[in-house]
Amino acid sequence: MIPSYGGSILEIDLSRKRVERRSTPESLCKEYIGGKGFGTKMLYERVGGDVDPLSPDNILVISVGPTAGTKIPSASKANFNFKSPLTGGYAESHIGGYIAPKLKWAGYDMIMITGKSERPAYIQIDENGAEIRDASHLWGKTTYETEEILKKETDKNAATLEIGPAGENLVRFACICHAEGWRQAGRAGAGAVMGSKNLKAIVVISDQKEVEVADSDALDGLVKEVLDNIKRDPVGTLAENYRKYGTPLMVERSNLMKFFPTRYWHLVYFERFEKIGPKEMAKYVVSNRACWNCPLACGKLVEIKDGKYAGTRVEGPEYETLFAFGGLCEIDDFPAIAKLNDLCDMYGLDTITMGNVAGFAIEAYRLGKLKSERPLEYSDPESVIWLVEQVAFRKGVGDLLAEGVKKASENLNARELAVETKGLEPPGYDPRSLQGMALGYALSDRGACHLRALMFTVDLSGEVERYGIPLEKVPRYLDNEDRFNVFDCLMLCRFARRIYDWNRLARMIKALTGIDYGVDGLKTVSQRVQTLSRLFNLRCGFKAEDDTLPKRFFEEEVEVEGGRKVVVRRQELERAVKEYYRLRGWDERGIPLEQTLKKLGITS
Ligand code: SF4
User: Which of 64, 72, 74, 98 to mutate to test the pocket of ligand 1 (most atoms within 8 A of CB)?
Assistant: First the structure.
C-alpha cells in the first residue's frame, strides 16, 4: 500500500443490499492521486450518457485525498462525484468539517454507492466495513434532527452526512449537510441523488490515528513552514481581517469594485450593501469554528437575538449566500438572510441556486411569465422565505422551481430570462465586471462555477485587463485550473490557495506518498482528470456551443467603476475558448484528440 492512503474502497449496492470491500489499486493512486481524480475516473467508468441522474444507475462517489487525516493544515475536504440531476452532466461537490479524516482513519479512500434501497436507509461505516440500516424513523426529518438522532443512536463522535426534506423530495439542487449544519456539499444536487436512492444519511465512526506517511521529517518541515507562512501573511485569506469577518468581507469589496450581482443579474452594485456587509454581520457573531485541523477557522456562528427572526442560529451566512439572497433578491436585512440560510441548511438546499431561483422567480413573476400563489417582489424577505418552503416541499409554484432555473425557464417558455451555464446557476461574481470569470463560467466542467479556476483572483490582480478576455488570460486560466485540480485530488481547501503553490504541492505529495511527480507530473494528472470530465460531459450530450454564457451577459450593459459600461464580447470569449481547447489538446469542437488521450493513458 502506498503511504498516506487508507488502503480500501467500499462499494455499496443499495438495491442488492451488498457491501464489497477491496484494496485501493496502486495504479489508481499514481494516475489520479485521490479526491476528484478518483471520483471522476469512477463516474467515467460507471455511468453512461443516457443514465437518468435520479435513477438507481447513477453513482454517488465519496472520495478523500492522501492529505486526509494527516498533519497537513486546511486539508479537511471530502469530494462527491455524480451525474447531476440539475445539469444532466458531470458534477462534483466538496464538503469540509471532519468527515474526510474520519473516513481515512476508518481505512477508506473512496465509497461508491449505487442502486436504490426499497425503504429509507442509512449506511453506517466503520473500520470493519459498512452496514445498511433502516431509516424509516428519519424520513421527513430536517438535517439538524437527523444528525442529532443518528449521533444518539450510534456514536456521539460520529461524522454524519445527511439530507433534509429537499433531498427526499428530489429538489434538483438539494445538498448534503454535515457537522450540525456547519458544512454542506452544496452544488449540483448531490442531495437529490441521495434522495433518489432512498438514502437518508451516512454515518462514519472511527477514532483519530496517525496516518503513516512516506517521509515524516519532510512532512513536519513542510507543516512548520506552512504554519509560519500563515502567521506572517499580511493580506488575503490568511489575514486577521479574514479570520475576523470570514467570506462576508467580500460583500464590501465586490460592491466597491462593482461586481456584486444585484437585482437578478441586472446590476453590479447593491446600494444598501452595508446593511448585509461584514460590519453588520459582526454584530451577530457569537463564535468561530474551523474544519478539522484548519488554522484559518473561517466559520462564523451567528445568532439573532431580537426582532422578527429572533432565535435563528446558523453558521454563516457566507459571501455566496449574502449575494444570492441579498444581491439577487435585493434583501437588505441581515437577520432575514440568516433566517433564509438557516432554512436552506435545515431542509438541505444549495443557497446559491436557491437565491438564483428566487431572483429568477421574482423577475418572471413581475413580467407576467410566472403565476404564483402569492406576490413575489424584490426586497421582500417574507416572499423569499415562503418560496424556500414551497421549493423544499415541492408545493404549488415550488414544484416548478424545484427543477432549477434552466428547466423552469424551459417550462415557462422564458429562456431569455434564465441565467445559467450548462444548467448551473452562477455564484457571486458578475462576469461582465470580472471577465476572467466569464471564461470560468463558460468552461467549468460542472457549469457556472467560481471555484474551478478562481479567475477573479487574476481579474483583481491588476496584471491583465479586467474588462476583457485577451488571449494572455487563457494560460492563466489553465494554470489555475491545473493547480486547483491538484488541490481537489489532494482535497485541500481553496482558502489555503495562497499557501500551497506548485512547489509546495509537489513537495507535499512526495512527503506523503513517496511519489515524486514534480510540477510537470502534477500538471499531467490534472490534464488527465480534466480530459475525463470533458469526455463525460460530451457523453452526456454537451457540445462546444454549451461552453458559453447566457445572452444577458453579451447584450445587457452594466455600469462599472468610472461610469464605464461593459458587456462580454462574444467573439472574444469564443476565441479564448478555442485557445483553451488547443492548450488542452482538444480539437476545435472541444473533443480531446487521439494523441492527447494516448499521452494521458485514457483508453476508453
Ligand atoms: S478555511 Fe474555512 S472552509 Fe476551509 S478548511 Fe478552514 S475552516 Fe474549513
Answer: 74
